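Notebook entry, structure prediction.
Reason for the run: the old model in the group folder had no record of what sequence produced it. Starting over properly, with the input documented here first.
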Amino acid sequence: MTFSRHAPSGATLLLALFTLAACQEPPPAAEKPRPVRTVKATPIDGGEEITQTGEVRPHVETDLGFRIDGRVTSRQVEIGASVQKGELLATLDDTNVANELRAAEADLASATAAESLAKTTLERQQILLDKQIVAQVRVDEADANWRSAKARLDAAASALANAKARLSYTRLLAPETGVITAIGANAGQVVPAGQMVVRLASSRERDAVFNVAESVINNAPPDIEVKVTLVSDPSVVLSGRVRDVSPTADPSTRTYRVRVALPDTPPLSYGAVVTGSVRYLAGRSIALPASALTAENGQPAVYVVEPRSKTLKRKPVTVSRYTASTIYVTSGLAAGDDIVTAGVSKLRPDQIVAFDGDVK
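New structure, fully documented this time:
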């Protein structure tokens, strides 16, 4: 048996060389610098002044109503009326209450007479006992009758006092000096006890009320001073302190109501439009676009371009205040740092970059 050996042809060798070359991957191309937009970190002094528009409101507004139910016979005031303490505001029909008062006076007169008779009887029985004309049981019986009559007299006196008080409840008086801001009942209307008839704004204390965004509330320093200026007369400038902040946001505007206590002089009319100005960040800070903010380990950070290697470094920073378009950094950066302000979500540390103006 004869074996034959066939040598590969030239075409076969050429095909094998092309197949081997196709299996080898080309070397990776060098990464091109990514263009970035930057700003220079420039510290500023004195912080930023924020101005908000609000209005003057009374610190205390009280809904005043009658302590008993009845029909309103008169209302003496209208909205905007200035009233003094003790001034008559409204009255109720007092016919039934006046009848109750007369009945209470009659009961008191009857109880007074009965108590006087019982006391005289007790004194007489005591004299007879001393002369041994009556037994002790007669004195005890007279004493019990007098004590019972005295108790009825005390009850009648209390009932008369209550009737007088109910008669006074038919007259609604101003508990303090102020201004009427709302009306809740008119003459002829039957009202239950406690229903608001008028609303009285006390003139003792005034507040400037502002609706403020959450970002301003969260970053406000404690015991901050607010400069309040009257819009109709800019020469009237007052200095107030924050009295209170509403614990919940308005469901429509998502803002918080802030009350600023105003001094008593000069008095401002209720509803007057004012502006409130506060200054944040009294020390040095760096203002950056909000688009520069990223995060590292859940904390605020920004990307800084290393000047020599043109690589990115992610630096943690301390942000004192946020607005819709700006952040204020108080630590973590140095003056002159190049801060990346756009596309930070697509960047990574140590990435080579080029300034946007250098890319052709």
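Summary: The chain has a mean pLDDT of 86.
The old model has been moved to the deprecated folder.
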